[in-house]
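User: quick one, sequence for these C-alpha cells?
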C-alpha cells in the first residue's frame, strides 16, 4: 500500500465527526433540554448536561481523539502489520463512539436502556489483536546461538508497582461491579495489566552475539537485529510523551522503561533500547562491530 492510501485511510477516520453531528441534528427538536449523559456501574443515570453541552462535549472529545490518532499514525512512513492493526483498532474505537453517541440519544428520546457491554467487548478484542500483531510482526530471523558477547536486562520496579496497583484496582472493580457480563469484560483487562506488570518486572533482555542483537521479554523473542544491518548507534534520551514498554510503529521501534537508552540506526529503520546504563549497550555494540 502506498503512503497516499495510508493517509487516505487515516483521513477517513474523520468521517465520524460529521456523522455524530448529523445524529444530533436529526434528533435535536425531540431531545430534552437536559440530557442524561452518564451512568453509574449499576446502570442508573447519575450525570446530566444541556443538549448543547452534550453535543459539544462529544464533538470535542472525538476531535481530540482524532487529532491524537492522526499525529500517531501520520508519523508512520512505512506501514507494517502493527500499524495496520492499530489503524483497525482506531476504526473500531470510532465506530463504538458513534454507537455510544446514538445510544445516548436513543435513551434520551425513548428511554431505551444503554447497553455498552458488547461494544466494550469488541474494543477489548481489538486491543488484544493489536498486542498480538505487535508481538509477532517484524521479529526478524532467529540469530545463531553461538558467539554470545554479553547479556543485559532493562526492567523497572517503578512501572511494576504502578501496573500492580492498576491491576489491584481492576480486580476490586470486577468484584464490586454488579453487572455479571461487565465483570466478564474486565477479566481480559486484568490479564493485560497482569502481563504488563510481570513484563515490567522481568524487563527486556538484550543478548549481544557476533551475529547481532536479540531482544526478548518473558522468554519470547521480540526482535533480532543482524549485525550487518547495524549502521550507527548513540546514547540518547527518551521522550516520555512516546510512552514506555514496547513502542513504535513502522520503521521505528522501542523497548524502554527508562528515560535514557541507545538509538540504533539500521538499514530497516531505528530501534531504541532503554537501559539505566546505556554506555554498556554502546560497549556491547562496539564489540559486535569488531566481528562484522
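Assistant:
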Amino acid at each position: 500500500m502506498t503512503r497516499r492510501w495510508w493517509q487516505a485511510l487515516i483521513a477517513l477516520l474523520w468521517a465520524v465527526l460529521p456523522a455524530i453531528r448529523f445524529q444530533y441534528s436529526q434528533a435535536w427538536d425531540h431531545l430534552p433540554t437536559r440530557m442524561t449523559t452518564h451512568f453509574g456501574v449499576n446502570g442508573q443515570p447519575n450525570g446530566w448536561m444541556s443538549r448543547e453541552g452534550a453535543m459539544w462535549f462529544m464533538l470535542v472529545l472525538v476531535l481530540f481523539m482524532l487529532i491524537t490518532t492522526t499525529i500517531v499514525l501520520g508519523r508512520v512512513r512505512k506501514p507494517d502489520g502493527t500499524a495496520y492493526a492499530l489503524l483497525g483498532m482506531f476504526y473500531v474505537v470510532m465506530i463504538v463512539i458513534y454507537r455510544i453517541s446514538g445510544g445516548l440519544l436513543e435513551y434520551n428520546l425513548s428511554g431505551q436502556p444503554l447497553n455498552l457491554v458488547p461494544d466494550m467487548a469488541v474494543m477489548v478484542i481489538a486491543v488484544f489483536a493489536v498486542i498480538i500483531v505487535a508481538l509477532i510482526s517484524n521479529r526478524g530471523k532467529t540469530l545463531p546461538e553461538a558467539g554470545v558477547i554479553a547479556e543485559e536486562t532493562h526492567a523497572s520496579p517503578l512501572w511494576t508497582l504502578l501496573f500492580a496497583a492498576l491491576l489491584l484496582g481492576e480486580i476490586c472493580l470486577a468484584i464490586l461491579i454488579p453487572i455479571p457480563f461487565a465483570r466478564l469484560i474486565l477479566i481480559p483487562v486484568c490479564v493485560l495489566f497482569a502481563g504488563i506488570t510481570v513484563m515490567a518486572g522481568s524487563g527486556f533482555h538484550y543478548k549481544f552475539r557476533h551475529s547481532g542483537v536479540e531482544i526478548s521479554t518473558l522468554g519470547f523473542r521480540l526482535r533480532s537485529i543482524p549485525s550487518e544491518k547495524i549502521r550507527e548507534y548513540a546514547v540518547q534520551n527518551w521522550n516520555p510523551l512516546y510512552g514506555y514498554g514496547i513502542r513504535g510503529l513502522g520503521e521505528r521501534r522501542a523497548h524502554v522503561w527508562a528515560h535514557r537508552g541507545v538509538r540504533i540506526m539500521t538499514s530497516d529503520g531505528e530501534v531504541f533500547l532503554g537501559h539505566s546504563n546505556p554506555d554498556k549497550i554502546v560497549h556491547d555494540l562496539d564489540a559486535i562491530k569488531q566481528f562484522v
